[in-house]
Amino acid sequence: MTISIILAHPTPGSFNHAIANAARDTLANRGHSVHWHDLYAESFDPVLPAAEVPRDAVLSPAIATQIDEIVAADGLVIVHPNYWSRPPAILCGWVDRVLRAGRAYEFVPDGKGGGKPVGLLKARVAMVLNTANTPQETEERFLGDPLDVHWRKVVFGLCGVTNVVRRIFSPVITSTPEQRQAWLDEVRALVGKHFA
Fold it and tell me: Where does the chain have alpha helices with state H?
């Protein structure tokens, strides 16, 4: 299988980096091919320029390569912190620029004068691994779970990936080294289970 890992955390050596590395190592050890993108390390530009909006736009080689990788991927792993109950801006921009209409999804007539989305991604599984400093119970009590809606319904629902696995590791800020090691063991187990 070919798996794309997208990491969005600004600080090298962060726990998000440890999560992404654990996922990558597990996949590589199981013989999978891995496309790795650390968006901050790559200085990914999240701003969607007007010139990229048309379906027939001429894209930079870097963006075109990422689109080709995502369209061909058998699975996806997204790793990011919870920023204001949403992904970091760099990852929102990655979604804008890489999950393009005509490649990741399209709209077809719904028979009622409107359009309905058809997902075009072939990935069988999308795994989203989040960190947060707010306990998940608190987030859900006050806000529901905006990140779950974002990834499961808005992004992957539109793009046709129905098997979305999401795990939140929180609160990171008060976690012990032992807790973080247990979480990394859980990442390895989740990746091994869902990308068999």
Answer: 15-29, 61-72, 89-98, 136-143, 146-148, 156-159, 177-194
- Per-residue pLDDT reduced to its tens digit, 92-111: 999 999 999 999 999 999 98
**Neighbouring residues of 103: CB distance < 8 A, sequence distance ≥ 6:** 67, 70, 71, 120
**pLDDT tens for residues 113-123?**
888 999 999 99
In this prediction the pTM is 0.94
Distances (CA, A) of 152 to 21, 25, 59, 158, 164: 23, 25, 27, 9, 6
Closest CA to 146 of 77, 78, 86, 87: 86
